[in-house]
Amino acid sequence: MTLAEQIFRRLGDGRLASGQALAAELGVTPSALLQAVQALEEAGARIETVSNRGYRLCGGIVALDAARILAMLPAGAQARVARCEVAWTLPSTNAALLAAAEPPCGQAAVMLAEHQTAGRGRRGRQWVAPLGGALCLSIAWTFAGLPRDLAALSLVAGVCALRAFAAGDVRGLALKWPNDLLAGGRKLGGILIEMRAESSGPSLVVIGIGVNVALGADARARVAATGNEVADFVELGGDPDRNVLVARLIGEIVTALPKFAVEGFAPFAAEWRQADVLRGRAVSVLLGADTQVGIARGVDAGGALLVETPTGLKHFVAGEVSVRVQA
């Protein structure tokens, strides 16, 4: 465990820690301690420094803890998790699971990272995730065969996320097809589905979920520079302990996936439609070099976006298009 990681975990209890006492506890010089604290801040960690009293993490943020997460899962969900790991830093939690051994059919492998260096959204966009201020979670699941409504899996994951947020008393959120979690029109999180499958036989699917938890001014400025607005979990009244949120997300998703494998999108469609932010609004749909303009009419039975265009009702499949609400 690096010195920076040790300090991050130690400061995550919300109490002020004297620099001198912390250096002695960790067996390092005050200078080495200061350098490590500065490295944490450069990675996006928000650390409060109180003159003559010490350091602490801002906003009640605590370190991720795989044992705590597993202990908070209901017994049925625990049985479906083959392994759960927390990495200090990774290029991508999705990429790590895609490169690892797949979990047994009907079970999940969970990967979390405190810090992602190459987190991605759809179409290769960078995902801004400051250290401690965001949730970088991926869940791998092995289906016995290719699910019938695989294109709707990001929609199912979105419904599961809203259920998990509601359990923490964060409500009134919306879903934007195919993979965005919104609060008041601002982006709270996103979903990225990737897979590794043969033409027949088991299929490994990785569900990546990024959630803004407590971003801070610097991260918000970086996102604003890209022309986007963001919301975070803490400003909406959520618990800043990411372990609690992760346990709820895992519990919802590993409970939903066996049902999805058998019944497809149908059991989740009503909840999706209730949260659909695009329905009835003018949208433009980009498909390669082609742009289609029309009115969003919800999704079909397989999760495809329906758009009423001047030439008729068209279906757009997740993973191929980008949707932008018209001004």
Description:
Helices cover 32% and strands 29% of the residues. The chain contains 10 helices and 14 strands. Helix 1 packs across helix 3, helix 2 packs across helix 3 and helix 7 packs across helix 10. The strands form 3 sheets. The chain has a 7-stranded mixed β-sheet with strand order 3-4-5-9-8-7-6, sandwiched between helices. A 5-stranded antiparallel β-sheet has the order 13-12-11-10-14, with no helix packed on it. It has 327 residues and is an alpha+beta fold. The model has no long low-confidence stretch (mean pLDDT 89). It is globular, with a radius of gyration of 21 Å.
Helix/strand structural class = alpha+beta
Number of helices: 10
Give the fraction of residues assigned to helices.
Answer: 25-40%
**Cα-based radius of gyration, to the nearest Å:** 21 Å
Number of DSSP strand runs? 14
End-to-end Cα distance, whole Å, is 49 Å
> Mind summarizing the main beta sheet?
7 strands, mixed
Using the alpha-carbon principal axes, give the shape. globular
Order of strands across the main sheet = 3-4-5-9-8-7-6
Order of helices and strands: HHHEEHHEHEEHEEEEHHHEEEEE
Q: Mean pLDDT score, rounded? A: 89
Strand content: 25-35%
